[in-house]
């Protein structure tokens, strides 16, 4: 077990929390790899979700949102890749409902306890015969197959398991996700799934998820595009046996920390595996007027095509960072900004600092790049993650369907 | 002379309006090409400007804004490329003032009638000895050299001359610009200059410029980045002899049309010459709730990296257009959107329309691509221009300084 810096929170090998089962199969939506899977909890779990803000919300995304918001409860999630079931009109809504119903029947649970998530090509009808076959093939196991079956252009699966003691009970939080950023309108989508055996009611879980997503998934950017199917959901089945967590529980801060660790890891994994990305970029902003502005500036820097291309080219061209800062509406001390790249200060009081910029440029060849900015306008901080802009990004997106 | 569709507005060969003089020279800021120039009007001209919204406004941009806003009058503009005089602190401000003063002395006019524009590398002090030499070399001529001397990574100069009859006098409007979009933080900047011999007072000119820029320069995007030095300015010296134009003048609509034609042409030229661009893209949005939303949606589509990469790859992947629309906050009939590319309808009522999409993909190999979107949410319209996202864009920006 790898100990983390936070006391009593441990990152462990992948395992499902108590009472969670899973499976994956090949339903024929993709050529060879598994393309369907499900998650199942032995007992109904508290549930929460956050959903894409794109106005063309896909049918499964709308259905899942309505399902979770009914009672903040879920017992299963059925997932497919290869087809997003998006922009398919009323046929899409019928098909999403049918997928939910087929999974519920097979699991012998209430349809209202099943979430549906789809990712893949937009605007092609969901092949329901294949979906039906796929669901009939799914069983209940400890398999990790679903973490592969949800992938599209991702280069690898993205998972994490964290354990902590809550109310003297061992609590497990396991998350996985897919997406090379919110950047795939076709093999669409960023999807995140978190399971835990902690006891916590649905409303509290929803608050925690919404807050934590703002600090993690919403602070990554690959190209600024938001899919019609983006969604992060969490299920907490209470089987760890702790007293239900509230904001007043002694161990609530530990749980929050563990939960945030899971989402941070998954968000970083997505940023670092952005389409065509060769480097993970982290931007830390300090000295901001408030936290929101710190987050805004961090995301503006990490999202600038010019900054991203400069990192790809290993060129410590700090004017691009200044320009990205200046484009925001955040409070900035126009004559007091500092910028460091990989720990070396390039800008002091908004003008060039004396530094060996060849050394800084050389350090941009690292697989991980950090940019630190002090706005000198307050004491708030914020962080965002992204990746570089490469030839491969253009190639992937220029020839996606061919 | 090429007649345009609007009666009495003609696009002609390049010529300066009556009373305008210009010159260009090599001051040594760039290796071989001309890198300085000026514009001069025989008499003080009404003047107006619009300036970058980037918080780190460069010293010459700030100085020019203050100069113009004093009385909406100018008699000359001094311009250099190769150095943006941006992020240089108080030294930058001193140098911009000195550049203004040197030009005024040489021209024997009031310093307060001289605008200054710089474009080039950020964060390096302006080499004042070279600037001084450059100004000493400038003369008054009918040369078009300044339209070349302002260029940085542009592949060609961008100019237009339009003539029309105003109050029975022949009025000339001549514009030129530089910039491969608002995308160069280093060899920075989009700069636009418009000269006319029409008579119109400064306040009216400022109103006209601000309104027209919103419809033209502000509707182009190459990569969404805004330089510290962006600026469009106009000088109107009244030497055509018309009665000063106001909104009540009989021929005001003709002048507005001619003026807009100049700015539209320059904006399109910049979009089509975007860094690495191989195609000019025009997006027309109809059926919008209001004009602002139409403009917002048009710009969101033309600015989406995914749409841009799809056009580069000649892949009629309409899900990307839908996704870009859905990301905006504009009113949209979620089930009633139409999308056409190069005149062929791909989406009807927000789902796939029957079309030969290979034919549409093939049409994306044209040098000009048009996308038409009907939001079905009103009667307003809007247009934006941009370019495709290419390997060359990444290459240029990854290795800019090397």
Automatic annotation (TrEMBL), chains A, B:
Positions of the record's site feature: Cleavage: 188-189
Record-linked InterPro entries: Arg_biosynth_ArgJ, ArgJ-like_dom_sf, ArgJ_beta_C
Protein localization: Cytoplasm
Domain of life: Bacteria
General function of this protein: Catalyzes two activities which are involved in the cyclic version of arginine biosynthesis: the synthesis of N-acetylglutamate from glutamate and acetyl-CoA as the acetyl donor, and of ornithine by transacetylation between N(2)-acetylornithine and glutamate.
Subunit text: Heterotetramer of two alpha and two beta chains.
Family: Belongs to the ArgJ family.
Protein name: Arginine biosynthesis bifunctional protein ArgJ
Lineage per the UniProt record: Bacteria, Bacillati, Bacillota, Bacilli, Lactobacillales
């Amino acid at each position: 077990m790898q100990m983390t810096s936070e006391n009593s929170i441990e990152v462990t090998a992948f395992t499902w929390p108590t009472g969670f089962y899973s499976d994956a199969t090949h339903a024929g939506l993709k050529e060879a790899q598994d393309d369907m899977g499900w998650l199942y909890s032995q007992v109904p779990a508290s549930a929460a979700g956050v959903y894409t803000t794109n106005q063309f919300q896909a049918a499964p995304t709308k259905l899942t949102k309505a399902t979770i918001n009914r009672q903040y409860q879920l017992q299963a999630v059925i997932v497919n890749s290869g087809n997003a079931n998006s922009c398919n009109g009323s046929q899409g809504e019928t098909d999403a409902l049918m997928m939910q119903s087929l999974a519920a029947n097979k699991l012998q649970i209430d349809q209202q306890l099943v979430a549906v998530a789809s990712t893949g090509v937009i605007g092609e009808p969901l092949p329901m015969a294949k979906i039906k076959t796929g669901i009939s093939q799914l069983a209940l196991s400890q398999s990790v197959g679903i973490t592969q079956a949800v992938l599209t252009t991702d280069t690898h699966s993205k998972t994490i398991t964290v354990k902590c003691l809550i109310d003297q009970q061992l609590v497990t939080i396991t998350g996985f996700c897919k997406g090379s950023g919110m950047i795939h309108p076709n093999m669409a989508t960023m999807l995140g799934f978190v399971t835990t055996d902690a006891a916590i009611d649905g409303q509290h879980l929803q608050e925690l998820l919404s807050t934590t997503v703002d600090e993690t998934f919403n602070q990554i950017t690959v190209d600024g595009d938001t899919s019609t199917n983006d969604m992060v959901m969490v299920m907490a089945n209470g089987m760890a046996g702790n007293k239900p967590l509230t904001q007043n529980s002694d161990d609530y801060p530990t749980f929050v920390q563990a939960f945030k660790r899971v989402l941070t890891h998954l968000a970083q994994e997505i940023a670092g595996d952005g389409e065509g990305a060769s480097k993970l970029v982290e931007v830390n902003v300090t000295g901001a007027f408030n936290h929101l502005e710190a987050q805004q500036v961090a995301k503006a820097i990490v999202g600038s095509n010019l900054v991203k291309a400069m990192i790809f080219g290993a060129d410590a061209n700090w004017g691009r960072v200044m320009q990205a800062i200046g484009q925001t509406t955040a409070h900035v001390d126009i004559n007091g900004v500092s910028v460091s790249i990989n720990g070396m200060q390039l800008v002091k009081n908004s003008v060039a600092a004396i530094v060996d910029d060849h050394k800084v440029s050389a350090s941009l060849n690292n697989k991980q790049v950090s940019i630190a900015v002090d706005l000198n306008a307050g004491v708030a901080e914020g962080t965002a993650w992204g990746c570089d802009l490469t030839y491969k990004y253009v190639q992937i997106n220029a020839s996606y369907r061919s």
